[in-house]
Amino acid sequence: MKSWKFKSIETLILGFFLVRLYGIWFPPLETWHSWRQTLTNMMARNMSEEQFSFFYPTIDMAGERSGIIGSEFPLYQSIIASFNQIFGFEHWYGRLISLVVASIATWCFYKIIERFWTTRTAWYATLIFLTSLWFAFSRKTMPDTFAVSLVIIGIYWIVRFVDERTFWKLVLGGIFLTIGGLCKIPAVYLFALFIPFALNRAFFYQLKVQVGLTLTIASLIIAWWYFYWVPYLVETYRFQLFFPKGILEGIKEIQPYWSDFWMQLYFGALRSYIVWIGLLSGISWLFYKNNKRAAIGFGILTLVFLLFAIKTGTVFPTHNYYVLPFSPVLAALAGVGLQRFHPKLSLVLVLIIAIEGLGNQIADFRIKPEVKYRLDLAQQVNQLVPKGEKIIIATGPNPEWMYWYHREGWSIMPDQFTDTTYMNQIAKNKGKYIVIDKH
């Protein structure tokens, strides 16, 4: 076992980085959540083609409205927009940006696990993390992995501050936590990881105050965006991206989807069933070996995440990427569990888990030929519809087609075409052209 001493975690992370470069140039047309990628790219494209603004992100499917949308803080979209402005527009910049940041976060994840457990535990956890849902989604043009990555990096620097008492590391950690939470609020649930730290009497009171104040400042900034600015944008410009539910309302919505809800947790996050050998071993280690602080940390994180999942209503059980923020927690727990076995058995198990995880995602690394026609939709529409004119399409809230048409307009439900009053209202708002995708 000593010959497999995990001499360089960087080699492992670099290897997975290189593997995921395959198809990095693909447009967002793969099976899993092309719609969310096109929405992100749409916002980024508008930032690069129109007035650049962090506070007024816009989309193209708002009809007669301005297109300004209440959404996550568009830092990720702004980086993509900067690439568009410097190098010219491409669909895939967000993929590369996400992959680079996620790879850095994976290294930070390894270092955090190694700090609190062992090198062997950190290797198991990191390999499981790399082959979890993280494998596919860390190369998608979506703010979800980007946000979780930033929070993990922030946690790493806070841990460094606690160990070394270097103030700039606290500031750096606070910055990463803040921008991570701004980019996607579900990533904020990882802040709960600091509750066991606050309860630990081994740390000085002054140290707890410094970390607590940093978290408070980060949380207040994030809260201002999501609970003041986003409602203001929604009220003023009448377009909303997400629709959070109350706890009871969320439970009621989820009831028909309970099997899918739990499947996201026991399979979706790590994309493996075999990993439960490690998870159950880890849980027994937490609760039967008197590891109170670790058990409290895992319990709090799980509870907070479940509350978040319930508040999304039907979105969580019907969208596989919503479980992404829970992947690092489960990977860490599985790594802890595998450490309890003999090293050779642990090695065999972690390799099988990794193969299973990869096998359950590899199909997402291809573009089906039948959807490639969408790359030519803008050119086709430009031949028929005068430049600058808005269009009407029947794809409902799905932003994909409007993104490929590269037009603004109305994305309505098919049955609304027969609503004479509604269509007359669109006509009054200069909606002249109906575009139908015969595919």
Summarize the structure.
The protein is mostly helical and 439 residues long. The protein has helices at residues 9-19, 34-49, 75-87, 93-116, 119-130, 134-137, 143-164, 167-183, 195-199, 205-237, 247-254, 258-268, 276-288, 292-311, 315-318, 327-338, 343-359, 377-384, 400-405, 420-428, and strands spanning 391-393, 409-411, 433-434.
How does this structure look, described?
Helix 2 (34-49) packs across helix 3, helix 5 (119-130) packs across helix 16 and helix 8 (167-183) packs parallel to helix 10. Helix 19 (400-405) links the parallel strand 1 and strand 2. The protein folds into two domains: 25-365, no CATH class; 377-434, no CATH class. Helices cover 60% and strands 2% of the residues. The chain has 439 residues and is mostly helical. The chain has a three-stranded parallel sheet with strand order 2-1-3, with no helix packed on it.
Number of helices: 20
Task: Summarize the main sheet.
Answer: 3 strands, parallel
How do the strands of the widest beta sheet line up side by side? 2-1-3
Shape estimate? globular
